[in-house]
Design goal:
By secondary structure, the protein is of the alpha/beta class. It has nine helices and 15 strands. Strands 5-6-7-4-10-13-14 form a seven-stranded mixed beta sheet, sandwiched between helices. A four-stranded mixed beta sheet has the order 8-9-11-12. Strands 1-2 form a two-stranded antiparallel ribbon. A hairpin with an 8-residue loop joins strand 5 and strand 6. The longest helix is centred in the first third of the chain and has 45 residues. The radius of gyration is 27 Å and the shape is globular. It starts with a helix and ends with a strand.
């Protein structure tokens, strides 16, 4: 009888162990399913949302709390973008933020940005608008940290280091992105010779040093220039030569971006992300920059308002995006590098109020100066470029809470 009870006890123990194992497996299965569901939801929010939520279609809405720095709190604002210093009488242009149609775009958070950038390096490559963008970023970061400038005082190319974060931030001047020479050394009023299939080694030799590249170019392509391919003159823009093919700026623009992206793809050890900042328009009204044009507006356009040159603006943007897609397709198998568009064109078409106009210098006695309707006041609309840059970085790095649907 004792043996029988012992056998029953052993059998019951086995049953209990089997039940416990079953319940454990069931709980693991349920947890796994829950985790997969949560992870899928997270991926929808953090990853594939960038396909569902278009950050670049939206409108400007009022932001009474803006701006988040001032021309007195940030010393990095260049004189010709320091609109408040030179007496701009209105301040409404600083009190707007970009809101996408389908989601809420978080405002720039300097703490989050610097945490993401710990141990990283970022470079802005392009013309004076790239510098404008960089200075906006430095001003937004100045609320929590100031960099050390390791550059010569008059140098165009600059290096800033945020020592506590081991974050390096650079600007490399390359208005045409490709090798370019003035016809007369040092005289930038003369036509440029653009070698459209040759790298600008000022930046292309340094690609491997960076984790993030923010590349852009635009208004310099409207200047008189001669175009070379394979060291052979193939055309010109705004030249007086009768024996040279007269080509449009879109010809050089497409070739320049194709060459720039080819340089990035050919950098053997680059494993980072390239952000293309698309064409940002000027807003001259009543004439071109040298014919009395000005940008006197004090409020954004609504999205149903259009500009006379919008076809040209959209053509330049389209060329950039086409070459970006070609660069993505050309990434060699096994190479860890990515390309992303920061498509600001539609947003910036709507901001004729954000330029310095005559408020980028002291008024001269008995002097008139061209109005600046190309660059952007700081603080001002291009601070939103850093809202977008931060969001794109979050998506790339899978960092924290992303945009929320509205």
């Amino acid at each position: 009888m004792a043996k029988s009870q012992s056998r029953r006890g052993i059998a019951n123990s086995v049953k209990l162990l089997a039940l416990a194992s079953f319940l454990t497996l069931l709980s693991l299965f349920l947890f796994s399913s829950s985790y997969r569901s949560s992870a899928a939801s997270t991926r929808r929010l953090h990853g594939s949302e960038e396909k569902r939520c278009d950050l670049f279609t939206g409108e400007w809405v009022r932001d009474p709390a803006a701006p988040y720095y001032s021309n007195t709190s940030c010393s990095s604002i260049q004189e010709h973008q320091n609109c408040m210093k030179f007496g701009r009488p209105d301040s409404e242009f600083m009190k707007w933020r970009w809101r996408p149609d389908d989601c809420e775009l978080p405002l720039f958070d300097p703490v989050v940005f610097l945490e993401m950038m710990k141990g990283k390096s970022m470079v802005f490559i392009g013309d004076s608008l790239a510098r404008n963008h960089l200075q906006s970023l430095i001003c937004l970061l100045s609320r929590v940290a100031l960099p050390v400038d390791f550059s010569e005082p008059t140098a165009e190319n600059r290096l800033y280091i945020y020592g506590d974060y081991k974050f390096n931030l650079s600007i490399i001047s390359s208005p045409y992105l490709v090798r370019a020479k003035t016809g007369v050394a040092g005289d930038f009023s003369k036509p440029f010779n653009l070698y459209l299939d040759e790298f600008d080694e000022k930046w292309t030799d340094r690609i491997d040093k960076f984790d993030f590249i923010v590349i852009s170019a635009g208004h310099w392509f409207s200047r008189p220039s001669y175009f070379y391919l394979n060291r052979t003159l193939v055309g010109c823009l705004y030249c007086s030569d009768t024996n040279v093919s007269h080509l449009s700026s879109s010809f050089s623009y497409r070739h320049a971006f194709a060459t720039a992206f080819r340089a990035i793809n050919s950098a053997e050890n680059f494993t980072g992300v390239t952000f293309l900042r698309t064409f940002a328009p000027s807003h001259f009204e009543g004439g071109q920059w040298d014919k009395g044009g000005d940008c006197p507006r004090t409020l954004p356009f609504r999205r149903n308002q259009t500009m006379a040159v919008e076809d040209y603006i959209n053509e330049m943007r389209s060329l950039q995006l086409e070459e970006l897609r070609a660069a993505e397709e050309a990434v060699a198998a096994g190479k860890r590098r990515r390309f992303q568009a920061m498509d600001v064109t539609a947003a910036m078409i709507l901001r004729p109020d954000g330029h310095p106009s005559k408020y980028g210098r002291s008024p001269g006695v008995n002097q008139t100066f061209p109005r600046d309707c190309v660059h952007w006041c700081l603080p001002g609309p291009i601070d939103a470029w850093n809202d977008l840059l931060q969001e794109l970085l979050k998506r790339e790095m899978g960092y924290g809470t992303q945009t929320a649907y509205v």
